[in-house]
Amino acid sequence: MKVLVLSNCPLAESQGSGYVIINTARCLESQGHEVRLVGPEELSLFDFLGNTARIYRTILGMTWWTLIHNLKKYDFIIFYGAECFISLHIIKNILRIKIPVLLHSNGLELWVDDFMKKNQLIENKKWYHFNLSKYFKYCYNNVDVLLTVSKEQYDYAIDILKINKDKVFYNNLALPDLYFESVNSIEKQKIITYCGGWLSRKGVIPMVKALEIILIKYPEYSFRLIGVGNQFDINEHFSSEVIASVELIPFVQNKVDLMNLYQESEIFLFPSQIESFGLVLAEAMYCGCAAITGDTGFAAELINREEAIVLDQVNKETITGALELLINDSHLRNKISNKGQIKVSELTWENFNLQLQSIINNVK
């Protein structure tokens, strides 16, 4: 089967969405399919504009690509990003090509919009921004398969968006194969680790407030901050009282090095309020960290106080309480570390591939 994949995200495996897209393509190829990957470098129009109006340029780029290429030679089409709504309309209603179309979402756009509105995190919009909700919903309703990366979004699509449940599926992402090949035995240290971007929706503001309390009360513990970039100024976010206990690692290029940093850490703190999946959480759990996490993405499937401490509300008090609980209760910390590791050991590309194959066979 010839499969066409059109992506709104760069085809870079080092980036979250690129990691998903490239490995999904590899799974399809392992099933014997021929895959044509088309990324933003082929779809983007007016590159001289940089990031200006990128979403609208992606919509136009996907539309133009759809019009100038022969789609009839493909047996299956996969889109990444609901920006494909015009392309979808052309395929289904103008060209009337009888090809199954799957939308593989790394984060349902309307799900993200709802969260941002509820939490008053909507950014100031430019004059050329307009509401695309009805077009995105058209896309969700008219693809043959809507595939999400977590049950949380699967439930949102069915319960909130009222998408036909027979066409909605979810397939949990997988850890890099490297994790199953080369996990070393490293002694745990009294380290609390966070890995990710420095964004308000990641819960970083209440996280810092909680750490200011914890690092003073428990001076034997330190905080390790990974992946916030070279521009991050630690002095802007932490007080002089605790700054000596904060280790800053702006970026980790090598996955083995990252695994070693996780394996040294007793606790992984990830109070994010919205994640499409949250792969860094799964990676840290596989490396034996007892995790504290927001109730979102993959974490929404975890059993609280068994596989992780799952926070219903993310604020200074809940984060502080969770940290104190794990610091003072080694039995609970070890139980969560062990059961969490068992839970994420299911996240293999082999299992992902089997589920993907079942979904495709169901719609062909």
Spell out the blueprint of helices and strands.
Layout: E1 2-7, H1 16-30, E2 34-38, H2 40-43, H3 54-68, E3 76-80, H4 85-94, E4 101-104, H5 109-118, H6 133-142, E5 145-148, H7 151-159, E6 168-170, H8 178-181, E7 189-195, H9 204-217, E8 222-226, E9 246-249, H10 255-264, E10 265-270, H11 279-286, E11 290-294, E12 309-311, H12 316-328, H13 330-344, H14 349-363
How many domains make up the 3D coordinates?
Answer: 2
Q: On the 0-100 scale, what is the average pLDDT?
A: 94
Structural class: alpha/beta
Order of helices and strands: EHEHHEHEHHEHEHEHEEHEHEEHHH
Overall outline = globular
Proportion of residues in helical segments: 40-55%
GO molecular function: glycosyltransferase activity
Keywords: Transferase
Protein name: Glycosyltransferase involved in cell wall bisynthesis
InterPro entries: Glyco_trans_1, Glyco_trans_4-like_N
What does this structure look like?
The chain is an alpha/beta fold and 364 residues long. The chain folds into two domains: 2-174 and 348-363, Glycogen Phosphorylase B (Rossmann fold, 3-Layer(aba) Sandwich); 178-344, Glycogen Phosphorylase B (Rossmann fold). It contains 14 helices and twelve strands. The strands form two sheets. Strands 2-1-3-4-5-6 form a six-stranded parallel β-sheet, sandwiched between helices. It has a six-stranded parallel β-sheet with strand order 9-8-7-10-11-12, with helices on both faces. Strand 3 (76-80), helix 4 (85-94) and strand 4 form a beta-alpha-beta unit. Helix 1 (16-30) packs across helix 14, helix 9 (204-217) packs across helix 12 (316-328) and helix 11 crosses helix 13 (330-344). The longest helix has 15 residues, at 16-30.
